[in-house]
Amino acid sequence: MNDSPDRQVRVRAAPAPSGSLHVGNVRTFLYNWLHARHTGGKFVLRIEDTDTSRFTEEAYAAVLEDLKWLRLEWDEGPEVEGPHAPYRQSQRTQLHVDAAERLLSVGAAYRCYCTKEELEERRARARAEGRRPGYDGRCFRLTDTEQQAFEAEGRPSTVRVHIPDEGEIVFEDRVIGPVTTQLEQIDDFAILRSDGAPLYHLAVVVDDGLMEITDVIRGDDLLSNTPKQILLHSALGNPIPTFAHLPQVLGPDRKPLSKRHGSTSIADFREAGYLEDALVNFLALLGWGTAEDTILSREELISRFDVADVHPSPAMFDTKKLDWMNGEYIRLLDEQELTRRVLPFYANAGLVREPLSDEDRQKVDAATPLIQTRIRRLDEAPALVRGLFLRVEMDPAAAAKAFAPEHVPELLQAAIETLGALDPWTKESVEAALRGLAEERQLKPRTAFAPFYVAISGSTVSAPVFDLMTLIGKQECLERLRRALEACGH
RNA sequence: GCCCCCAUCGACCAGCGGCCUAGGUCACCACCCUUUCAAGGUGGUAACACGGGUUCGAAUCCCGUUGGGGGCACCA
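YS: structure for the whole thing
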């Protein structure tokens, strides 16, 4: 637990905006959010957009949109602001540069005049000789006269922090456990580019310090770099935050989840008809969980979550389980809400056009209970009720199978006659009529009704056919049955 | 190459020295229910990577091996 009485928990999410968020990053943000809510702390959103060549305003907007959709609301950050504004790293460079100057003035950092080419060449050589390819610290050993000479010739310089060769740095990671690093493994890394721009580690540490971040929860790709950041924090006189490194989220091939595994962005999942609560529930359980329960509300997640319980081993993103869980959440929705959510999918599939006509409105409402137990994703809904809105083509394979039995033409003919005379046209009367026909012919329901599914829905994967027929109306049903009869070869 | 991290059913989680003949969930299989498809119900298959220790006792602690992942940038 981190409910240390002396300071309120402050965590942050620090996305580099490159478009819609990757689900792996979302899990990291979710854990931060859960930790903040669980401890009654603050969740800060800081956008790490320092590499201006890579980040666009659209990408930035997409990040905020994703977080809002997931309802991972932030207490400080863009739009809501707060005492540590600005919350976009690109607007904080002066702060970072000032910190670098301070490190320079106290001798914790020094200027390095090595060129990129020199460094690359030395790195390549080190690798070839089996040595660690980091910086060898030679500019730290520059004499004053050598340095003045470089300055006089106007040679550009980066700023590096000096790391002692001896000693070790130990920190207690809340998911990994104690982590020890020998200082000889850490090179004098750069904190300012030769054009004066601050580098990642500097920016993170300065901002985490200024924003009084107490608990850093992030991906374990930063685990090996954490000692560097601890060193920087100390050099800057910051309190050292606690760290929790989350293992990677894996794809089905056990490789880190990436675009080549297909959909990985929140936008993709939203468009496929996943519900935000299902995604949150599912992601929360990737790397953390309880023994018995899997469907957990946000409140339950918040009260049970503890970073210390997070698995140190990587977890695979299992779409099958997500689909199941999403289906559970769809069934939890009330009909009105589900209707509201599937409507865009109907429109997108060309079944209806907004604003809805009265007739379509009625059909859309009536369709909801028919699809609710039949879909796992919202985008599966249109296929089940296409026949409700359109005179759909009959699926050739389904038709071939359903119309093959010898009794089918006669059955369809009888149905056309019986239904043609049916009054009133209600679900009960339609069902009774068709069941009657099946019984007279001693047909089992499943074989008897297959032709009707194909005739009305175009397929045997469909919402229940009696409901559809009732909603479609007598005349249209008769039309489709006649069409089916013709397709049988009559 | 060097350093660091990880290792329970196919997947996610439970297990934190005896309650384990290893539990739950997804997936899978079978059966039931059923107008198709689902949903629902019942049951089932299935795992402690390997090898050494420590201990009366190990899935649980330690060490190796193997296998995965990450880091070693004037990227973030």
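YS: worth flagging: Chain A has a mean pLDDT of 94.
IM: good catch. Also The longest helix of chain A spans residues 23-39.
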